Amino acid sequence: MTKDTAVSPQAAKAQARLPRGLSDRAQAELAATRRMLEAIREVYELYGFEALETPAIEYADALGKFLPDQDRPNEGVFSFQDDDEQWLSLRYDLTAPLARFVAQNYDSLPKPYRSYRVGHVFRNEKPGPGRFRQFMQFDADTVGSASPAADAELAMMASDTLERLGIERGGYVIKINSRKVLDGVMEVVGIGGPESAGRRLAVLRAIDKLDRLGPEGVKLLLGPGRKDESGDFTKGAGLDAAAIDTLLSFSCGGQYADGKASVDLFGLLGKSDVGAQGAEELLEIEDLVRDAGYGADRIRIDPSVVRGLEYYTGPVFEAELTFETKDEKGNPVRFGSVGGGGRYDGLVGRFRNEDTPATGFSIGVSRLFAALQAVRSPVVAEPARRGPVVVLVLDRDRIADYQRMVAQLRREGVAAELYLGAAGMKAQMKYADKRDAPLVVIQGSDEKARGEIQLKDLEAGARAAASISTNEEWKAQRPAQVSAPEAELVERVRQMLSGGAAQ
């Protein structure tokens, strides 16, 4: 390479940038999320669900994401080939991996099998506000029960979970519908049968956007298609006006657009066997939750609930937050759906000779976390942070002595760290402040010769410093700093951490 074509070290450096649709999370958010997940876990275990973890990577065919005309997984899923030329994919949700696990371990599992899983899922989709390519879900599923009581139980558990997290009654609702009911309506408007599977999926995905786009936006998606604010065009289901009016009327509970179209819901469902069956199941679920003490203010039937995934076969659920708050600019914000799920009786059967009934519920952790922050839930409220005790390094040739102090504190259960940088004492003190250290351990050569240590309480020192105006006063008072025998290191540190005097 000549001098003219050589790449400079600066030009060769990679650019520090975060891929679109992904986010970094620091200590405070991670700690708050951990508390939130633990609260959810407590409720799920109270209902008898047990923990399960599945890998983030599955064979692509296990996720059921193939285009019929291409030898590669469908868009929406991050995929790659391994050295055997097998397609692998990052999991799209936590349900398909569960179905694979149950099928693979079917004979050894209790039936029904009740499990919960928490982890990140990945969507190869266009990112946008509130829409990420990696996000966390927390699922609970019952596999092996066809009883509507299993669906009712998940709705009740979702309600209990939201209240345990600090969402007050009246600030949320668990809405229930049925894919059988929706299939019945689509059958009535002429798009039943296997030849219309693609159009039915387009209809479901359109109605699933009703809360976000409103009736007029969904009307376009049910018809010719819709162009969004960015100019991207989504092809519609291509239905005629009568079919669109019927579907929208049903989804809006009998009417839409100020009552311009209406439909006899019960008369409509009576024209379809599968629709009538779905309606009966919904009424049974409603009876079960009412008998258990869950009123319509907590759980109710809502025809607008669809859920966009195609594998649902029966009741579908959505946990919606109904309260309104304001963003940093004072604009009104509604969080809407923070979780959902439903019955998927055919998913495990993709791996076996017979179908296995199953139903589940999933919480969108990130969205619910933001909502809990908005209502100032104590579950995610940030407690006063206390970092580790920091042992300063004043004599570089005595690293081993300082390390022994750190090890002694750790053995006794005190979080501690050794300063590992190259700065002097002043910079080390600033480092300890940034680490939220409650106190620092100081030992120079003079203290070592006397067999002593200096303990400086940074929390008390900060309070005392507010009343000190000159360097002379600071040097004279040395606020919140005491001497102690080195042999009493652990005892004195514990006294200071508990709020007692070290001297």
Question: What can you see in these coordinates?
Answer:
The chain is an alpha+beta fold. It has 2 domains: about 25-55 and about 90-375, Bira Bifunctional Protein, Domain 2 (BirA Bifunctional Protein, domain 2, 2-Layer Sandwich), CATH 3.30.930; about 390-495, Anticodon-binding domain (Rossmann fold, 3-Layer(aba) Sandwich), CATH 3.40.50.800. It contains 18 helices and 20 strands. The protein is elongated, with a radius of gyration of 30 Å. The protein starts with 8 loop residues before the first helix and ends in a 6-residue tail after the last helix. Mean pLDDT is about 85; it is low at about 255-260. Helix content is about 35%, strand content about 20%. A hairpin with a 4-residue loop joins strand 10 (about 255) and strand 11. It catalyses: tRNA(His) + L-histidine + ATP = L-histidyl-tRNA(His) + AMP + diphosphate + H(+). Homodimer. It is found in: Cytoplasm. Belongs to the class-II aminoacyl-tRNA synthetase family. GO terms for molecular function: ATP binding; histidine-tRNA ligase activity.
- Number of self-contained structural domains: 2
Q: Write down the oligomeric state.
A: single chain
Q: What is the terminal-to-terminal distance?
A: 68 Å
**Mean pLDDT level:** 86
Sheet of most strands: 8 strands, mixed
What's the CATH first level of the largest domain?
Alpha Beta
For CATH, the homologous superfamily of the largest domain is named as Bira Bifunctional Protein, Domain 2
- The value of Rg in angstroms is 30 Å
Low-confidence stretches: 254-262
EC number: 6.1.1.21
Binding site for L-histidine: 93-95, 123, 137, 141, 307, 311-312
Catalytic activity: tRNA(His) + L-histidine + ATP = L-histidyl-tRNA(His) + AMP + diphosphate + H(+)
Protein name: Histidine--tRNA ligase
